[in-house]
Amino acid sequence: MTYVKFATNVATLCIGLDFISNFINIKFAQGMSMLPTMDSGLYVVDKFSQNWRQWKVGDIIMFESPIERGALLCKRIAALPGDQACINPEGLEDTYCVVPKGSIWVLGDNLAYSRDSRLYGPIPINLIRGRELAKTLAL
């Protein structure tokens, strides 16, 4: 292989990896908050569609923790801006709030082990880092 062909292949690979890294990411999810839907493992996260796709109730997303800078959390969207969200879904007394514009309400599937909007309150949409697409590896 000539030097020019080798350099071309390396450049093509770098451009391809850069292109892919702008659209998807692989993240590690750990914990019990999303059981039984998700257990610990590596997940493919779609970073691109958040630029054009509307979020829906039921989407599983990764977002930056509103109280622990840099920590990524994985939860399910339970309410969108303008929706009523139940603050205490398992309690004896239901308390509701309206999700403000520019925010979402998230819950873990395993409510007993989830730190979610019941603790954090509404999550600003700009903290969303992507939507979970697929599991790649169980750990």
From TrEMBL:
Annotated compartments: Mitochondrion inner membrane
Domain Peptidase S26: 14-88, 98-132
Single biological process term from Gene Ontology: signal peptide processing
Keywords attached to this entry: Hydrolase, Membrane, Mitochondrion, Mitochondrion inner membrane
GO cellular component: mitochondrial inner membrane peptidase complex
Pfam families noted in UniProt: Peptidase_S26
InterPro entries per record: LexA/Signal_pep-like_sf (IPR036286), Mito_IMP1_subunit (IPR052064), Pept_S26A_signal_pept_1 (IPR000223), Pept_S26A_signal_pept_1_CS (IPR019758), Peptidase_S26 (IPR019533)
Protein name, as recorded: LexA/Signal peptidase
Organism of origin: Rozella allomycis (strain CSF55)
Primary residence: mitochondrion
